[in-house]
Amino acid sequence: MVVPRFASTVVLVRPDESGAFEVLLTRRPEEMRFLGGFYVFPGGTVDAADYSPMVLQRCRGLSGEQACKILVSHHEPFEALGHWVAVVRELFEEVGVLLCVDAEGREIQLGDLAVKQRIERARQAIVREQLDFGAFLESENIFCDLARVVYFDRRVTPAIYSMRFDTRFYMAALPVNQTPLTRSEEVTHSLWIRAQDALACLDRHDFPILPPTTTVLQRLANLATWEQLRQEFKFP
């Protein structure tokens, strides 16, 4: 039996003009071994670097003890925090969204073109493994804002599969003044879509999607408004 690897997945959401909400789906490149070509939520495995001392010094809004309690796990506190850090890192690597604050706790601003270009160069270097995520946080003097990442579910790949993951699911609202990349090294296409509309595409050959993504979408489809979503998942 293959031991499942720890992973974190994030449902990024935003309100729309009608008072409802949309979720971000990303399509994985066909050549990827796991779910290649399918639409999924951003995410990936939890790396040891996600709970390195350098990275954990760059975290705000959640303690290791709180993370352990939320996950109801046997992880060490620093390992539990790594699950949240993996959300922040993977979201940045895959679509360029940065759930971070500055030293004063203010949401970072990426409106300035020069800053935006510098951050994008860093993102590319992290993906190429030429730059460590912790070193990036330190160089920019920014901190992972873990308080805005809300845990809500856990799924473990069945034992019959040769590639298995013990995946924690989280939700986060898109930060103001940030826009996800439409494509990147790990994403062939990303799109904002209502959960109901995504489920309506299940029979289309050009919109491949599988559980547990569909399971999450079905849960979200039962919520009609942005306020209902916020109340259900209790995110900032």
Principal-axis shape equals globular
Using only C-alpha atoms, the radius of gyration works out to: 17 Å
| CATH fold descriptor | Nucleoside Triphosphate Pyrophosphohydrolase
- Share of helix, binned: 25-40%
Give me the oligomer status.
single chain
Quote the distance from N terminus to C terminus. 40 Å
Per CATH, the superfamily is Nucleoside Triphosphate Pyrophosphohydrolase
In CATH, the architecture is: Alpha-Beta Complex
What does this structure look like?
The protein is 32% helix and 22% strand. The protein is built from eight helices and ten strands. The mean pLDDT is 94. It is an alpha+beta fold. Strands 1, 2, 3, 4, 8, 9 and 10 form a seven-stranded mixed beta sheet that branches. Strands 5-7-6 form a three-stranded mixed beta sheet. The longest helix is centred in the middle third of the chain and has 19 residues, at 77-95. α2 crosses α3 (77-95). The protein is globular. The chain has one domain: Nucleoside Triphosphate Pyrophosphohydrolase (Alpha-Beta Complex).
What are the defining features of this structure?
single chain, 236 residues, Nucleoside Triphosphate Pyrophosphohydrolase, 8 helices, 32% helix, 22% strand
List the helices and strands and how they pair.
Elements (H helix, E strand, L loop, with lengths): L4 E11 L5 E7 L11 E2 L2 E3 L7 H4 L2 E2 L3 H8 L5 H19 L4 E3 L10 H15 L5 H8 L1 E4 L4 E7 L8 E9 L15 E5 L1 H5 L13 H9 L4 H8 L3
Parallel strand pairs: 1-9, 5-7
Antiparallel strand pairs: 1-2, 1-4, 2-3, 2-10, 6-7, 8-9
Helix pairs in contact: 2-3
